[in-house]
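Meet today's protein:

…
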Amino acid sequence: MANKMWKIAAEVKGILFDDFKEKNLVAIGWDRFGDLREYKGRDSLVKAVKEKYPEYKKQRAVIVGGMLYRFADEIKDGDRMITYDPTRRVYLVGTVKGSYEYDPSCTFDVDLDDRWYHLRKVDWEGEVSRDDLSTSTKNTLGAIMTLFQVSKEAANEIEMALKGKPLPDVVERKDEQDSEEEDLLRDIQARSVEFIKDKVSQLDWSQMQELVAGLLRAMGYKTRVSPAGPDRGKDVVASPDGFGFESPRIVVEVKHRTGSQMGASDIRSFIGGRHQDDKGLYVSTGGFSKEAYYEAERSNIPLTLMNIDELVKAVIEYYEKMDIETQRLIPLKKLYWPA
């Protein structure tokens, strides 16, 4: 069986890269553990993580337990190992020598939150520039996990680059590289939208009402939010003056029932309580039936139906114009991407 290749992070921003290189080793933290050989199997380590790090959520405990198991048991003598220096943009490549070691006397030249006593000896052989690798390999090596197995294709590329051999996949036309980057960006964007929808779905009804009102304020309107209780079919009223005297007067109904569509009768009920000069906005996180859309089209007032996809799209578009209180409902971070 061919030896595997593993990538291990040299702490945040690669601050342990030089230590790893000079000491001919790699290491991980989690110093609340003693010798990992005292734990038998992955499940035993996952259970121990939950006990020793009670602040971890269940999924994180499973990930950390699995990673500790890989470091102590799955990595074998003779496997290949790489670590990354983001400041120089190079990968250090070497071969694992021997089995897992636990060394409480091990120290490093930088300050760390915990002590890194779990070690694997490595004979380092050389460095590979990130610029010498194909876009697809760069993408696979960009994972944020502390430790993971490198794909066979990426490992082969790294070995060829280490030997100074030309890489067929790297001699790419610019348009091919751009296409891969665009595909990755679309994937990230699609995932981010789904994650934001997850957060929106977790809001309670009053928070959803405030989110919609905050969105309308970001669009330039002033809003009045109905208090809890019977609202006679209006949760938010938006207008230029905030009182509904100036046109347009937008009356908003918010239904936060994930998985439950609004039907034609709901739309008719909403329309029936509107004035002739009103504009209607009906927000439903559960979506709308075909009949509901038909009712909206034949409405005697301008009426827009907004499902969760359209709500999230609007939130993303106007997020930076939202007030702090609204942004706190759905905290988002900006991601910059090469144009």
